[in-house]
Amino acid sequence: MIAGTEEGDILKERQHLFEVVVAFLEYSKFAGLEIERRWLHLCRLPQKYARLLPTRSLAPSLRQHREAIQANQAFLNAVVQGVDEIAPVDGMVALAMEQLAQHAAAAPREVLTSRANISKIHATLHSCLREWSQDGIAERTACFDVIIDALTEFLPVTSANRHKQKVLVPGAGLGRLPLEIVHRGYACQGNEFSYFMLLTSNFLLNHVEEAGMFDLHPFVDQSCNIKKTGDNVREIKVPDVCPAKLLWREGYREGDEVGGVGAQENGKLTEGGEGREGGEHGQHHPSSSSSPSPWQPDFSMTAGEFVEVYANQKECWDAVVTCFFLDTAPIVLEYIEAIHRLLRPGGVWINFGPLLYHWARGDRAGGGGEGDERFAKSVELNWEDMRHVMVGAGGEGVRDDGWEFEIAKEEFREGVTYAADGRSMMRTVYDCLFFVAIKKVRGEEAGKNEVMAKG
User: Fold this and answer.
1) What pLDDT sits at residue 450?
2) Sequence-separated (6 or more) residues with CB below 8 Å from residue 449
3) Most buried in the list 60, 163, 379, 393, measured by CB within 10 Å?
4) Using N-to-C axis directions, what is the helix angle for 27-43 and 59-80, rounded to 10°?
């Protein structure tokens, strides 16, 4: 029975990955059908209204949208070629292309990709702007810089500990924050559960050789809240930096050449409500040097649900960084427990983000949860209650359960956006919770640390 369950999980894993690959490859079709819808509705306007519009609202605009979609598709095609590096399943891209061709012949105006996966493709393109373009600098400054400043303040890098202090970044997205942390002289591992993000981060971190290699149009899917013609089809260059060259500069500081960016995958992936088993392997960026003994950054990525992937680790991280991540938990106490267990005594937890609990309200007003059990168990704590749990009842002593932190910094950062269109007439703006929490040292551990310090 157990073996059958494991086999079933593997099949689910592969099926989900196949659906993600299909979504990447089918982007231009479902995006094109949406543009066609807009065009047809515009053409159906009564003549007395249509003649009032400027000519640029018609054919030129349609051409711009089509060109933008094709540019996005070229990028997504390149990204999906690395699927065998994420999961060792041969021929998946060819199989997906074959199935798409057969479906197009049988039902040319229907798409295989679900609405949920269409939304995730759009979100992936928006995240490319946030993490890997010049247009995303303001958002990265508002949160990444704040996090890194706190990291260097509470866990300073010296010549003796450079690249030795270990930082974990769950919810790593497209990998820019872990990359910047490595660039500052830390060892870092990112963790991500979404195949959409994993495929794209794998490509950007391991296969991009120059800055600005791709032209993207991340908001071509938008048709509302547009100020000016062309705003939603404007071009951005991705990436704004070449990861290998950024790390080359860090390696040069060490006096060695850079061998590449490491990546690995392990754990059980549970994105979209499906349990998916992953393997473990290494991936490396094309070397920026032909040196036979290059400097290798301690930089990796794991795939899977955070709590499950790190279930067997204890007190092995110097810092945990959570950026727009805490509210992805159905029960945030599970994350707090895991982070406390993972940190060494005296370790640092840096958090930045809102409390927009992702699994709240999913089973109301007609559903939306698609049967995912996480909607049925979501607990949405406010910051006051969460803080009470972290510091311990009464704030005195260390509880027997050991979940206790000292809050070293605590504030709300106003006016923060996430993957927002800066030219849109509508944006979601957050007052983000920023804190630095130190894992308290128990009496016995404090004694050991004191002895070590004297030694």
Assistant:
1) 44
2) 345, 346, 441
3) 163
4) 170
